[in-house]
Amino acid sequence: MKRLLDVDLRRDEFLKLGALALGLALVDPVALYGTIQASESPAAGTRTGGGSSQIKVYSAQRKGYVMTEKVIRTDADWKKLLSPEQFHVTRKKGTERAFSGPYWDTKETGIYQCICCGNDLFSSDTKYDSGTGWPSYWAPIAKENVRTEDDSSFFTKRTEVLCSRCDAHLGHVFTDGPKPTGLRYCLNSASLKFVKAG
């Protein structure tokens, strides 16, 4: 009788483990980790076999949270939540004066979030000193967390950067940035909230 009970318990545990394995197999790694990058060179993790074919070794790295649920508020509601400058910049597409914001020269490690909705936007890992007086980054945490639009204001063509979750105006992106992207996301400190790592 005891032996039969042991077999039943093992079968039950086996079924639970099988269900767990199936659940893990169905999880989207991109949703968990943000982006998945393939290593291209042998030094970076590509294994080369005896022939000319290569096996790419994929490594997942979490870049931040991807938020998709839209945040929609009236101007009156935003005015209650934001300072006058934050409202002017994020909701009315304003621009703060160069070298006036608190984050243009911040070098601490952490995440820069949208001041309006808390969406993770940029990491200190991609921040660099562009010499412009505004916080600048060469890539967002996740491409889904920001969006761009053509901006023809002030008699010039630029590309506006917005929070994809609440449509807050963040700044502009230019093609004069450093490698590896060659992009410069030039943002307003007033549109950001810095969350220090640790």
> Span from first to last CA?
54 Å
Instruction: Name the average pLDDT.
Output: 77
Q: What's the CATH topology name of the largest domain?
A: Metal Binding Protein, Guanine Nucleotide Exchange Factor, Chain A
Shape: globular
Helix content: 10-25%
Neighbour order of strands in the largest sheet: 7-8-12-11-10-9
CATH superfamily of the largest domain: Peptide methionine sulfoxide reductase
What is the number of independent domains? 2
For the sheet with most strands, the description reads: 6 strands, antiparallel
Keywords:
198 residues; alpha+beta; Metal Binding Protein, Guanine Nucleotide Exchange Factor, Chain A; 6-stranded antiparallel sheet; 3-stranded antiparallel sheet; 4 helices; 13 strands; disordered N terminus
